[in-house]
Amino acid sequence: MSDYSKCLMYASAVGAISLSLAAGYWRGRTSLQPDIILEGLISLRKSHLHKDKVTKYIENNSFRLLQVQWKLIEETMKHPSGKLLSCPDELQLLQNLVSLIKGRKTLDIGVFTGYSALAIALVLPEDGKVVACDVNEEFARIGKPFWKEAGIDHKIDLRIAPAVETLNKLVDAGEGGTYDFAFIDADKENYLKYYELCMTLVRSGGIIAIDNVLWGDSVADPEVVDARTLVIRELNQYVYADQRVNISMLNIADGVTLCFKK
Ligand SMILES: C[S@@+](CC[C@H](N)C(=O)[O-])C[C@H]1O[C@@H](n2cnc3c(N)ncnc32)[C@H](O)[C@@H]1O
């Protein structure tokens, strides 16, 4: 039997098993019991009670960082605002997604010391680019030597200006629908504007990743009503209802929503 026939047989078997499992699953859910579902979901999140241990485990068993990435993390951690750094496991996921969709033109909204720009640039082809937007040149200056060391500095187009301005300029320059990927990780007050501008700039089939959507879990606590939490809650509801995208809200880092533009 040829390899191709074996593959077909295997695929049919897997398909049949999945269908029967799915049928059983839906039969079992004809009368929904919200309490039981909620309890199950909470039990899935239990590992977050052991955040440190689990973080260490993830680091030891999945981080595939280059030396230069570790060096930039170390340098950033020395900075008083070091905690603004994006999580490496989140960025590794985004790198994999950018590779998967063969991304070339990308947006990094909120550069800080340049970890996300570096991670994204590393998986782009030689002629790829990251339009990296930040208002603070001091922060970006910390990252620049590491971009150079990694040999990807030519892919990063750093724009020091309010990101809304930079993105509007790209729209005015006729670049709508030409970007493959965007990472939104700047001032929360402008998140909705960034999302809409990215929806204009990113092509169909492209991905917009929105960081901090759980905002230290405060979005899930109705008693927390500070301005930033309210903005993120509003954005989450807006994106949830937005039929132009398929979405996944992931409980990774501080929460990231992946929007797959239809
Ligand atoms: C959480 S940090 C970004 C972290 C970064 N993505 C990383 O990989 O480490 C947020 C950044 O947004 C920048 N920022 C704040 N307001 C901004 C604005 N209006 N336009 C552009 N950047 C802004 C801040 O200067 C800061 O560097």
Keywords, separated by commas or semicolons:
262 residues; globular; disordered N terminus; single chain; 10 helices; alpha/beta; 7 strands; Rossmann fold; binds S-adenosylmethionine; seven-stranded mixed sheet
Describe the protein's architecture and organization.
It comes from Lingula anatina (Brachiopod). The protein has 262 residues and is α/β, with parallel strands linked by helices. The protein has one domain (47-261): Vaccinia Virus protein VP39 (Rossmann fold, 3-Layer(aba) Sandwich). Helices cover 49% and strands 17% of the residues. The protein contains 10 helices and 7 strands. Strands 3-2-1-4-5-7-6 form a 7-stranded mixed β-sheet, sandwiched between helices. Helix 9 (191-201) links the parallel strand 4 and strand 5 (202-211). Residues 84-86, 110-113, 115-116, 133-136, 139, 162-163, 185-187, 190 line the site of S-adenosylmethionine. Residues 84-86, 110-113, 115-116, 133-136, 139, 162-163, 185-187, 190 line the site of S-adenosylmethionine (SAM).
